[in-house]
Design brief:
The complex is a heterodimer of chains A (255) and B (14). Chain A is an alpha+beta fold and 255 residues long. Chain A is built from four helices and 19 strands. Chain B has 14 residues and is mostly beta strands. The chains are: A alpha+beta (255), B mainly beta (14).
C-alpha cells in the first residue's frame, strides 16, 4: 500500500492515539480499516482508508495487522509530511510490517520494520440508525466550540431545535452557550452550517472526550454530527476524494 | 447528576 503523503497517516494516528493504544487493522481489497473502543468503553472509533486513498494498493489475501500505536508513532515521526509511504505486509511472515518513506526531491529513502502484535480483536455491530438530527459544519468551527466550552464545564450539551443548534457547558462558576443557525449566505460548501431534524432534541456528552474527537479536524474541512435520543452521537469526518473517513461514536451522559 | 453510559449499553459485539 503506497500513500502519496505520510501526513494522512500521521493525522489518523493523532486522531486516535489518545483513545486507543493498540488496534487491529483489517486489510482487504477495499482498503484498510480499523474499529476500536477506548479502555473506558465510552468511545468507539472507526477509520476507513479506501483504495482511492492510495497511489497504489494491492491486497491479495485479507490480512489483520495488530498495530501498537506508540512504536508506530515513533516510526511515522521519521517521515516528512510530504514523503511517500509504502506499507508492506507479507503473508508468509506476519510477524512484522515494513514501512518505506521516500523523499523524491532529496532522493532520500528510509526503511523501518514494525513488529506486529497479536491483539484480541473485538468488533461492535453499529446498527444503521435513522438519526433524529444531523448537523454539518466546518470542522475547525466545531473544534473551537468544543475546546472553548470544555474550559467552562465538563458536560457539553447539544440541543437541536428551530433556533438552530445550541452547545452549552456549565461549570461551578460559569456557564456558556453558543448557537449556530443554518448558513444561507455562504457560497463555499465547506464553510456552511446545515441542520436537519425531525423532533427537537437535547443530549449531553463528556466534554473531555469530545475534545479528543475534534483532533480529526486535521483530516477534513467539514464534520457531520448525527444525533438520536438515547443513542451515541456519531461524529464523522469524510476525507477528500473518497479517500475514506473517521467516525467516532460517543456514548451520552444520561439521568 | 448525569451518569456516563457505555458503548456496550447501545451496541453489541458481532
Amino acid at each position: 500500500a503506497r500513500l502519496p503523503r505520510s501526513a494522512v497517516l500521521k493525522k489518523i494516528l493523532d486522531s486516535v492515539k489518545d483513545l486507543v493504544k493498540e488496534t487491529n487493522w483489517d486489510c482487504n481489497e477495499e482498503g484498510m480499516s480499523m474499529q476500536a473502543l477506548d479502555t473506558g468503553r465510552i468511545v468507539l472509533v472507526e477509520v476507513m482508508l479506501r483504495e482511492a486513498a492510495f497511489e497504489s494498493y494491492a491486497c491479495e489475501v485479507p490480512m489483520t495487522l495488530g498495530i501498537d500505536m506508540e512504536p508506530f508513532g515513533k516510526v511515522l515521526r521519521c517521515a516528512g509530511g510530504d514523503e511517500k509511504v509504502t506499507i508492506k505486509a507479507s503473508r508468509n511472515d506476519q510477524d512484522h510490517i515494513e514501512l518505506v518513506f521516500e523523499n523524491e526531491e532529496k532522493e532520500r529513502m528510509s526503511a523501518f520494520e514494525l513488529k506486529l502484535m497479536d491483539i484480541d480483536g473485538e468488533h461492535m455491530a453499529v446498527p444503521d440508525a435513522e438519526w433524529g438530527a444531523e448537523i454539518s459544519m466546518p470542522s475547525s468551527e466545531f473544534k473551537k466550540i468544543v475546546m472553548d466550552l470544555a474550559e467552562i464545564g465538563s458536560d457539553l450539551t447539544i440541543a437541536v431545535s428551530k433556533l438552530g443548534v445550541t452547545f452549552t457547558a456549565q461549570g461551578n462558576n460559569c456557564k456558556g452557550s453558543m448557537v449556530l443557525q443554518p448558513s444561507t449566505a455562504v457560497d463555499k460548501k465547506s464553510e456552511q452550517v446545515a441542520i436537519s431534524f425531525t423532533e427537537p432534541l437535547e443530549m449531553t456528552f463528556a466534554a473531555p472526550y469530545m475534545k479528543m474527537i475534534t483532533k480529526a479536524a486535521a483530516l477534513s474541512s467539514t464534520v457531520t454530527l448525527s444525533l438520536d435520543e438515547a443513542c451515541p452521537i456519531c461524529v464523522r469526518y469524510e476525507m477528500e476524494d473518497n479517500a475514506g473517513h473517521i467516525k467516532y461514536y460517543l456514548a451520552p451522559k444520561e439521568d | 447528576t448525569l451518569r456516563q453510559s457505555r458503548i456496550d449499553d447501545f451496541f453489541r459485539p458481532t
